Amino acid sequence: MRHDMELPTSEKRPVRSSDRSWEEIRKEFPILQQTIREHPLAYLDNAASSQMPQDVIDRLVWYHSGEHSNVHRGVHTLSQRATNAYDQAREKVASFINAPSSKECIFTSGTTEGINLVAHGYGRPFVDEGDTIVVSALEHHSNIVPWQILCEEKGANLEVIPMNDAGELILDDFDEMLDSSVKLVCVNHVSNALGTINPIKEITDRAHKKEIPVLVDGAQAVPHMPVNVQALGADFYVFSGHKMCGPTGIGVLWAKRRWLEEMQPFQGGGDMILSVTWEGTTYNDIPFKFEAGTPSIAAAIGLGAAADYLDHIGMSRIAEREAELLTRTTERLKALGGIRCFGTASEKAGVVSFDIDGVHPHDIGTILDNEGVAIRAGHHCAQPVMDRLGIPATARASLAFYNNEADIDRLVAGLYSVKEIFGV
Amino acid sequence: MTDMRALYQEVILDHNRNPRNFGKLEGATCLAVGDNPLCGDSYTIYAVVGDDDTIEKVGFDGTGCAISKAAASMMSVRIKGKTIQEAEVMIEQFRHMLTGELDPKSDNELGHLTVFHGVSQLPQRVKCAVLPFHALHAALEGEDEISTEGEQDVWNEDTP
Asked: Do A370 and A279 reside in the same domain of the chain?
């Protein structure tokens, strides 16, 4: 393979129309073209991890074939190429979420690390004994456990915004919850277990009236709808690359500059310093202050390519398509009978959590897999949500824009087999 | 393609619907909790062991999938009246059947438990079937808890 290194491969592709058909778009995902157990793959586990289009795969190959070196270090050509591509990726993700500055976008290993970074960097200096962290009842374990650890260390309290049976947050007493002890509100933009879209703007407005910052876990939102962190009013917004058609091992923490300037570093090491002597260390400016060590360079560049890919199709168009698929899935499951759906919020993303009376979700998952249909079965790392609903687990079909009507037909046919085998 | 009806045989579905010896066993001389934290399956296995090392009764409660529940139910039936030593042989044979090291048609002590041999074709479900057996083993050994994950991962010992 020869490289003239002028253009990444994605820019060498023939110009594609952003309104090309969904079937054309589906063909751009090589992994979806295979059969599983002699059936075409119906991949409906997108909330766990999405798939990469050829553009992103090519970008990774290109990086590894012609650009790889360490970033922000060498004077040689490859180091400059890697640094340029890495810095451009930061610009791309900043623009994708409408961050005011790419300097406010920290590359992390994923949403989990982003939240832990805030728990350390913000929690250590700003949370004291007797203070309160507010989380919502809909959170993934990654937006619960770091706060439990912090609260235990500091002698602080964790309070929970409750949810109703539909999986919507109950905000009636939210203002009363926000007393002077509250140092942070943590809430997901979209629930991974139930698909609820939370009213982030309302939450940030009400919290900001009391001058309380808000952390938003956007892992399940960024891949599925237009996200504008400024319009949402978030103080911290975290998300993952692998749920938005990018690679694993990369994510982003966006935070308002004010917080990033005041926060402590998370990890110490190379790249996050200006100077180190035995007397002490001066930290580098943001974003580098929070990126110790060699970052996941290739994955960051892949994430940048994923943002370009999604942006080209258009997030509004993607949201519309997924809403269509969600309506169809929900109606077909209802028509099948004997299916109990969890999460019936009026504002919902493409997640359908359900069970079948008399059949454990794992058995549903195994029988569906046998027909080439990939779903998730379990507690979805949201055990408190399951406890609140009084169930141990659910089966979850989660949609992406590259799914099609045939995938939903296959899900329904698989569920018919489940009912037949179990005699329910 | 695995035949799902070979996996979910009628006897398994029957034990799933109507588990035998289900519920807390009063007078148990030993018990152990078996957890699979990845999927949330959790069972407590109870046993009454007599002075002569005979397992007089086995019971269980908890929640999980059809495979794990039926395995616990059928195990509780099969183990009753066996000695600890005989039970341990059976536990070992069951595990070997699911890891493909024991032919279910060979001479063995498993009886009806061989209906679970189809699970060996589904590596991600082997832990489901074996969970109650490991919990029984732990109870008989005097441990009170086992997990399919982490330090106590029974799979880290001597199974693939």
From this structure: no
Of A277, A311, A345, which residue constitutes the final position of a domain?
A311
Q: Tell whether A154 is covered by a domain.
A: yes
Q: Are residues A274 and A398 in the same domain?
A: no
Option in B5, B17, B41 nearest A421 (CB): B5
Q: So what's the pLDDT on residue A178?
A: 98
The nearest alpha carbon in chain A to B42 belongs to: A392
Which three-class secondary structure state does DSSP give residue B151? coil
A381 is catalytic: yes
Q: Which two tokens stand for residue B143?
A: 């441990």
Do A162 and A257 have their domain in common?
yes
Q: What is the pLDDT of residue B1?
A: 47
- Mean pLDDT, range A237-250, rounded to an integer: 98
- Which SS3 state, helix, strand or coil, does residue B50 take? coil
CATH assignment of the domain containing A256: 3.40.640.10
pLDDT in tens, A186-207: 999 999 999 999 999 999 999 9
Q: What is the ipTM of this complex?
A: 0.88
Same domain flag for A98 and A152: yes
Shared-domain flag, residues A404 and A273: no
Query: Chain A: nearest CA to B125, how far in angstroms?
Result: 8
Q: What is the pLDDT of residues B105-142, one digit of tens each?
A: 999 999 999 999 999 999 889 999 999 999 999 999 98
User: Which of B1, B13, B41 has its CB closest to that of A370?
Assistant: B1
Residue range(s) defining the domain that contains residue A102? 77-311
Does the domain made of B4-146 have the CATH classification 3.30.70.660? no
Do residue B39 and residue A359 have CB atoms under 8 angstroms apart?
Answer: no
A423:B39 CB<8 A: no
Whether A421 and B13 lie within 8 Å, measured CB to CB: yes
Please count the structural domains in chain A: 2
Q: A129 and A246, same structural domain?
A: yes
